[in-house]
Amino acid sequence: MHRIVASISSLSQHQDTLTHDPARYRPDGCPRCGFGTLWRHGWYYRKACRAPHGGGREPAAVPRFRCATCGATCSRLPKIVWHAARLLVWDAVFIVAAAIAPG
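^ that's the sequence the OP posted. Answer follows.
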């Protein structure tokens, strides 16, 4: 299962997709057991970049799904949320690298 929906790259596109085509986020099958019956199981919120290169951040709803067979939950993130998380990870890497660098 791909965790990222790469075709959704802006917050407005994400909100529009949730309104008009929410099935786009539904995974093809459960990542744990492999069966294909997934039910919508609410939402959670992640901070997303508003502008492509930073800018303000605001919460974006991420749909969650539950497997009818094994009960596992999963979700898929829009690219805009993944981009924000990736930037935070790289910031942490640079901070740690600077702290342990000699000199």
